[in-house]
Amino acid sequence: MADEKTLTKGEKTRATIIDAAHKVFLQKGFSGTSMRDIADAAGIALGGLYNYFDSKEKIFGAVLDAHHPYRLILPALEQTQGNTVE
User: For residue 2, how far is the Cα from the chain centroid?
Assistant: First the structure.
């Protein structure tokens, strides 16, 4: 992600939503989480949430993209030497 100081207000809000949604999904699961839960956790109005994401599924996709372990694993694999994992 870009340096915190170079993010626009909208980018910061989007990141806040994604981080809040990540926490709520972990606590309540996907089915138990509502858009209102996410908006409340992010500290924004429900209508404001819809300015960034039009569905819970889209937020979940953004959470997966932001928090998936491949972000750590792939760079580590690229730095390994040799032809096999061993």
Answer: 14
Domains and CATH numbers, the chain: 8-79 (1.10.357.10)
Q: What is the pTM of this model?
A: 0.76
Q: Quickly list DSSP for 53-75.
A: -SSHHHHHHHHHHHH-THHHHHH
CB atoms within 10 A of CB 2: 9
Residue type, 26: L
pLDDT tens sequence across 14-34: 999 999 999 999 999 999 999
Instruction: Tell me the pLDDT tens digit for each residue of 47-77.
Output: 999 999 999 999 999 999 998 777 767 666 6
What is the H or E stretch that residue 77 is in? Answer: helix 70-79
Q: Which two tokens stand for residue 60?
A: 């979940």
